[in-house]
Amino acid sequence: MNRGASLALINAIVWDDFAPGAAEVLRQGSVQRVELIRGKGKWVVYLCLADIVHPSELDKLASNMCSLVEGIKCVEIVPCFEGWGTSLETLYSKHWDMVMAELTRRLPALAGATCQAQGMVLHIRVANEVNRQHLKAKGCGSLIKRYLHQAFGLETEVLLELDPGAARTEEIISQAMEVEKQILAQIRQEEDKPSPKAKGKDEAIYGRMFKGEPVPLREVQDEEKLLIVQGEVFGLEIELETVRQPVKDGGRDPVEGPADRRPAGNGGALGALGEIA
Which of 207, 227, 206 is nearest to 218 (CA)? Predict the structure, then answer.
């Protein structure tokens, strides 16, 4: 393909596949130069055009050209649009959607970024610091500057910035996360505090404590009326019996008085416990 050759001379290109306006611009385009990357079987065609066409139309042209050349795996079209002079703001106001489509095709991480042109300075604003650092590492600024120079002859400065609204959102999220950390730290402190002391064996569950040493059950004597014992009560059974007490009234014969109900048994530990009760 000769330098300065018009694409209209390539009859094998199917121009019916293109949008009418784009087809006419591309037919009148001239080839500036062609680079062959042998290791990849790739052609890079620098094409000078009189007007801007959408990147999708350039993809169609690349596909058509690739099918015409045997041994070529892919073709990349690098457009150069004539007649733009030095006005970045004019390009931004009229055709930036197509320019951004081409830039995003070359660098997908630009998707979602917003742009603003001020003089010859292009501000690229992204949603968060992670994206900004990623684009910086990918050489985003240099890529955009090179494209704008090759395609439009513009010498620009590119600044990668955080979107002001997104920066405020990140600040709010950071503050919320800090508050959450403080709350979690307080919860952990409360969990680490020793639990209230459980009642031990020497504390009263009901009533009040009293002084004295407990007497082992084996040492309990029948005649003891007051004593302290310690242990676990696992069962209690009391059997009552009726005892008739004779009552003397002057010289009369004894008569049976009121019944006195007391625990059965006259000795042993059970009797002692019954009297204690």
Answer: 227
